[in-house]
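dude i think i finally got it to work??
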Amino acid sequence: MTLSVLDRMTLYSQQQYRQDVFSFYAETLEDVYKLFRHAAYRQFTILMHGKLTARDRRTVPACCVKLIREKFLSLSGQYTGFIPGEGPVF
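look at this
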């Protein structure tokens, strides 16, 4: 998990790809950490469940969420949390 989910270079390269595709760039340190958190959750989900469809959402275990939030803190202390999709939640 440390290399594939918490490693900054792994997440950075993934974010660079997504920025090229979606043209979203971080403007503040808070944005950078938010992008890293999102990338880490996405990496964990892909690692555990493979590629999911847009409607298929999976919860990330609390222990992993805790590690990701400790590594990439929200400077404001506010986190989005899990947002359920239209399909079933596993």
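DSSP finds three helices and no strands in the chain.
im so relieved honestly
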